[in-house]
Amino acid sequence: MALPKQVKIVEVGPRDGLQNELAVPVEAKIALVNALGHAGLTYIETGAFVSPKWVPQMADSSDVFAGIERLAGRTYAALTPNLKGFEAAVAAGADEVAIFGAASEAFSQKNINCSIAESLERFAPVIAAAQARNMRVRGYVSCVLGCPYQGEVALDDVAWVAEKLWQMGCYEVSLGDTIGVGTPLHAQRMLSAVAAKVPMEHLALHFHNTYGQALANIASCLPMGVATIDSAVAGLGGCPYAKGASGNVATEDVVFMLHGMGIDTGINLNQLVQAGADVCQHLNHGPRSNVAIAELAKQDRTP
Length: 303
Prior knowledge:
Layout: E1 8-11, H1 13-17, H2 26-39, E2 43-48, H3 61-67, E3 75-79, H4 83-92, E4 96-102, H5 105-112, H6 116-132, E5 137-142, H7 155-168, E6 172-177, H8 184-195, E7 203-207, H9 214-221, E8 228-231, H10 251-260, H11 269-280, H12 290-298
Parallel strand pairs: 1-2, 1-8, 2-3, 3-4, 4-5, 5-6, 6-7
Family: Belongs to the HMG-CoA lyase family.
Pathway: Metabolic intermediate metabolism; (S)-3-hydroxy-3-methylglutaryl-CoA degradation; acetoacetate from (S)-3-hydroxy-3-methylglutaryl-CoA: step 1/1
Protein name: hydroxymethylglutaryl-CoA lyase
């Protein structure tokens, strides 16, 4: 199959990235979201309405939503695992919400203390409430290429959960390699199995770079027709299951690769690099993006 002419980047840095980093000031989060919007990102996961006891880094999400500059043609989304979170997201002015499940029974039990089936039951009222407000719901599936607790995850299990989210009303299902252990052929087989149940145009890839495989995995799947990629500016978000490892694939690296393949993203790479460098000033590390490190070095700047 031919490569897509255009790819949508779902920027998850302000949420999935920063929730696994040191807490940063709310002003820095607002500045990051604004900079991402001006750089051309059209979908920005801006915050999460979850228990501050479990995810304290997201406790100020309402303040972030209140402070951002809302550019035309941009979607500012929030993660909402339950009805309480959904109602808080609506009150904050989120454009769209997301729910998250897992393809691994062991991960579901460890992460949210319930079975996969029970987690899906919990999502039903969130989806119903969103549909009543004509809000779109995005679904995440964790551990599609491996689980930190059970190891290998059956492709049939991945496809089953993705199909359930699709049938329940998620307009898009994001397939997450939570621990970054996938390799290209495995990624292709997984995507093929899911695409047999959910139309390819409603699927997204959310690959982590723990073992340095994320770009290769994305590149291997693009000819199959997938055209939505999740990523985090500066590679924000470590992997909690592999100490010291990187987490989300860096948006700068994905954009550089896509542009090199002749695929349009609508993103200004220079502005993107700057946005990542700025937020990293509040962290104990520089950008984890190879592209950002190279570009900043050309400017004689140490990231």
